[in-house]
Design goal:
Helix content: 25-40%
Strand content: 15-25%
Shape: globular
CATH architecture of the largest domain: Alpha-Beta Barrel
CATH topology of the largest domain: TIM Barrel
Distance between the termini: 67 Å
CATH class of the largest domain: Alpha Beta
Length: about 325
């Protein structure tokens, strides 16, 4: 009798065959055929900011406090080095260090998802391998931006990353930033690859949610990337929200998501109502400008942000303060 097991060594997958009399055979396999099983995240997942000092250097002490803040308030997972984490302005070494240290600080208390997308397939592979070696639970890969690939190009890009790095991977579709839309039919093709386990769908379209649900397997997870429609997204079959709002209102977002995932429409919408101002006003200027200003107002991070982003314009201070007061996060 032969027993099989999979192991991963520095980004490469191997099949271990253990036969009778303890004879052991090891052979490499494609990471994409690894049986990931019932991999899933659910509920309120924060697209975490990267705290910075005024000079733009990363404030790791504040990062550690933010991680504890979310663990204490019911956040289901932390996404580090996504758009909200200013991944675009950190170099490769910084990017990898923030992911690695986030994992270390979390110390197994909360799931960590590393943002590793790029419009260079080779760079995305390198970042994803770095994240896996740093211990993340999964990676989030934004669609290639600026260079406008075809649907076949999108498929081959994500397929090669999945085959190259043996870690669960979540697609990220945000056409408003990338000028590139991963269409439902392409999502369905990618969902057949075992370690592509879900998608963050940030179009804000509930019709798109239903299209994707009709095409993908039941164990493929769909996450809203749009706070304003997140509650309805979950009530209509989505599995969670990767949220900017949860940076400043984690307890409230966790409670709303719990109600929505339980199918309690009345309670979910009631809990979501005080958050609607944040859902909108955290985008008065480009994310993460408003959310970093809000967190600074709460005394959780310094006011640092890297160019070309700049601090929140003064005309938006009072509207955002009002939204924070309405949500119960600022007195």
């Amino acid at each position: 009798m032969v027993h099989n097991a999979f192991i991963i060594v520095t980004g490469n997958a191997f099949l271990v065959e253990i036969a009778e009399k303890s004879c052991l055979t090891v052979r490499p396999v494609c990471p994409a055929i690894i049986p990931w099983g019932n991999f899933m995240f659910r509920g309120s997942m924060v697209a975490l900011v990267t705290p910075m000092f005024a000079d733009g250097s990363v404030d790791f002490d504040s990062l550690s406090k933010l991680i504890d803040f979310h663990i204490d308030r019911g956040t289901s997972a932390i996404i580090t080095m996504g758009t909200t984490g200013e991944s675009a302005t950190l170099n490769m070494d910084e990017h990898c260090e923030v992911m690695r240290r986030t994992v270390e600080m979390a110390a197994g208390r909360i799931a960590i998802i590393g943002g590793t997308g790029s419009n260079s397939t080779a760079e995305a592979i390198e970042l994803t391998r770095c994240a896996m070696e740093g211990g993340v639970d999964a990676c989030l890969l934004v669609a290639p931006y600026y260079n406008k690939p075809t649907q076949q190009g999108l498929f081959l890009h994500h397929k090669l990353i999945a085959e190259s790095v043996a870690v669960p991977q979540i697609l990220y579709n945000v056409p408003g930033r990338t000028v590139c839309d991963i269409l439902p039919e392409t999502v369905a093709r990618l969902a057949e690859i075992p370690n592509i386990v879900g998608i963050k769908e940030a179009t804000g379209s509930l019709e798109r949610l239903q299209e994707i649900l009709s095409l993908v397997p039941d164990d493929f997870d769909l996450y809203s990337g749009d706070d304003a429609t997140g509650a309805e997204f979950m009530l209509q079959g989505g599995h969670g929200v990767i949220s900017v709002t949860s940076n400043v209102a984690p307890h409230q977002m966790a409670a709303m998501c719990e109600a929505a995932l339980a199918g309690d429409r009345e309670k979910a919408l009631e809990l979501n109502r005080p958050l609607e101002g944040l859902h909108n006003d955290l985008f008065l200027e480009a994310n993460p400008i408003p959310v970093k200003w809000a967190l600074h107002q709460m005394g959780l991070i310094p006011e640092g942000i890297r160019l070309p982003l700049t601090p929140l314009s003064e005309q938006f201070h009072e509207p955002l303060r009002k939204a924070m007061r309405d949500a119960g996060v600022l007195s």
